[in-house]
Amino acid sequence: MHIFDILGPIMIGPSSSHTAGVVRIGNVARRILGGTPSHALIQFHGSLAKTYWGHGSDKAIVAGLMGYLPDDMRIRDSLKLAKQNEFSYDIETVEFADGHPNTVILHLSCKESTNAFTLQAASVGGGNILVQKLNDIDVFFTGYYDTLIISHQDMPGAVSLVANVLAVEKINIAEMKLYRSKKGGTAIMVIEVDGHMEKRVVSALSSLPLIEKVTLLSGMSS
Amino acid sequence: MIMYNSLQAIIEQAEKENVAISAIILRQTVTDTERSEEDIINQMARNLSVMKEAVAEGCKEGLKSISGLTGDWAFKVKSRFEAKQGFCGIFVGEVIYNALAVMHVNACMGRVVAAPTAGSCGILPGCLIALQNHHKLTDRQLIDGLLNASAIGMVIAKNATLSGAEGACQAECGSGAAMAASAITEIMGGTPSMCGIAAAQSLKGLMGLVCDPVAGLVEEPCIIRNATSAMVALCSAEMALSGIPSLIPVDEVIKAMDVVGKQLPVSLRETAEGGIAASPTGIKLAAGLQNNNRPSE
C-alpha cells in the first residue's frame, strides 16, 4: 500500500467497489480472452445483484470488457458503444451460497475462437478485485502485481521450465500457485512478480513445451 | 523509515528535522516506490487536476445522477452565494458547494479521485480548492496539502480502516475530514503537532457516524455528508491553529474509531438496512429504484 492507494484511484463514480472494481474485473477477463468478446453473459450476485443499475455496474462491466480503464469517461456510455461494436451481452442476477457480496461471473465467447471461457471474480473494496475461478478451476489472485497466467499440461517439469525462464530474465517471484481440475489435465500456474515484466518474457514462455497459453496482466500498482 | 504505524512518530520525525509532514511523506514515498520525487509530485498534480475538473463540472446546472434521485445541489448553493444571499461567508460557502459538486459528479458517473474513498471524495477537494481561491495558494502548496493528507489516511488505513462496510461513515467521511483538517493546518502554517491535533478533532467530531445509504447508493445521505464533514474539517483546523490541544492523542483516537466501527451493528455499516436507509421514506425510495423498476435509458 502506498499514498496513491489512499488518494486514488482516479475513477469514474459512484462506487469504488461497485463501479471501479467491476471495470477492473472486465479488464482482467478481456486480457485473458485476448480481446473484446462477441457475446458475454454477465451474472451479478449479492449486493451487485440488488444495486448494479444504480451504481452503473452494468456499464462498468461492459466497459471493462471493451478495454476501458476505470477512469475512462466512456464508461457512462458503454452500453451504447457496445452495440455499435457488435458486442452483445445479457445481464442476469444470481444467488449462490458462500459468494462474496460483490461477485461477478462472466461467460464469454469470442468469434475468433470456439472456446467459451468463464471467469468468477469479486470486487473486494477500494477498486481492488480477487479473481476466484477460471473455467472450472479455483484460483486466487488480485491483479495488484504483474501477473502471469499460464495454462499448461499437468505433467512433471512444467514448473521448472517456467521458473528457469524467469530466473534468466532476473524476475523475482512474489507469489506462485498451481491449480488443476484433475490429474494429467490442463493446469493453471499463477505467478505474481515484483516490478514490471516485459512482453518478451511472454513469448519466451509461450514457446516452451507443455505450455498451452500464457497471459500477462499488468499490475494495478504499475 | 516511516512505517505508518503511528502518526505521532511521523510528527516527531518532522519536528526533529524541522520540516513539514508533507516533506517526510514525499521522501518516504520515493523510497517505497523507487520512483523520483518529480514523478510522485506529477502524479499528485494529476490527482489535483482531476479534483479541480470535478469541482467545475459539478457546479453546472442540469446534471442528474443515474438514479435520478439527486441533482443541481452544488449549483443551488453556488447561485445563492453568487446572489450574495449566503449568510456563512463566501469561503465557507465555496467549501460547501465544492464538496457537493465533487460528490455530485461521482453520482453522475463522472471522474473523481477517491479521497480516501468514492463515498468521501468531496471533502478534501472541497476544502483545498476553496482555500486556494481565497488565499492565493500555488498548486505546489496544494500538492503538499495532499501529501500531508495521504499520511493521515495511510496511518488510519494501517491502524483502523477506511471502509464503510468495516468502520461505517466515520471511517470514510471521518477520515476524509481528518485528512482535510491536517492538510489545511499545514498549508496555513501550523506545526506538524497541530496537524495531528486537527486530524484528531475531526475524527472525534464525526466518531460513531453510521453508514446508511438509501437503496445502497452513494447519494443520500453521502452527498450532503461530505459537505457537513468539510465543515468539521474547517472547524478542526481553525481550533488546532488557535492552539487548542486534543486531550486524547491522535493515535489513540484512531484506535478508538476502529473499535467503535467494530461495535456498530452490521445494519449501520453500508448494508442499507439501518439509519435513514431503513426509514419509511428511505425504503419507499429504494423500492422505486429496484433494477426492474427503473427509469428507462
Characterization of this structure:
The complex is a heterodimer of chains A (222) and B (297). Chain A is of the alpha+beta class and 222 residues long. Helix content of chain A is 28%, strand content 37%. A 6-stranded mixed β-sheet of chain A has the order 3-2-4-5-6-7. The two termini of chain A are 12 Å apart. In chain B, 63% of the residues lie in helices and 1% in strands. Chain B has helices spanning 7-17, 21-33, 37-58, 73-82, 90-107, 123-135, 139-159, 164-167, 169-187, 192-205, 222-241, 250-263, 280-288; one strand at 111-113. The N and C termini of chain B lie far apart (53 Å). The mean pLDDT of chain B is 95. Classes of the chains: A alpha+beta (222), B mainly alpha (297). Chains A and B meet through helix 1, strand 1, helix 2 and helix 3 of A and helix 2, helix 3, helix 5, strand 1 and helix 7 of B.
Pick out its properties:
heterodimer; A: 222 residues; alpha+beta; 60s Ribosomal Protein L30, Chain: A; Alpha-Beta Plaits; 6-stranded mixed β-sheet; B: 297 residues; mainly alpha; 2-methylcitrate dehydratase PrpD
- With helices defined by DSSP (H or I, 4 residues minimum), what is the helix count of chain A? 7
Element pattern of chain B in H and E: HHHHHEHHHHHHHH
The arrangement of helices and strands of chain A along the chain is HEHEHHHEEEEEEHEEHE
How are the strands of the biggest sheet of chain A laid out side by side?
3-2-4-5-6-7
Domain module count of chain B: 1
Cα-to-Cα separation, first versus last residue of chain A = 12 Å
Helix segment tally of chain B? 13
Which range does the strand content of chain A fall in? 35-45%
Radius of gyration of chain A: 17 Å
* Major sheet of chain A: 6 strands, mixed
Mean pLDDT of chain B: 95
Most extensive interface between two protein chains, with residue counts? A-B, 37 and 50 residues
Q: Which percent bin holds the helix content of chain B?
A: 55-70%
CATH superfamily label of the largest domain in chain A: D-3-phosphoglycerate dehydrogenase, domain 3
User: What overall form of chain B do the CA principal axes indicate?
Assistant: globular
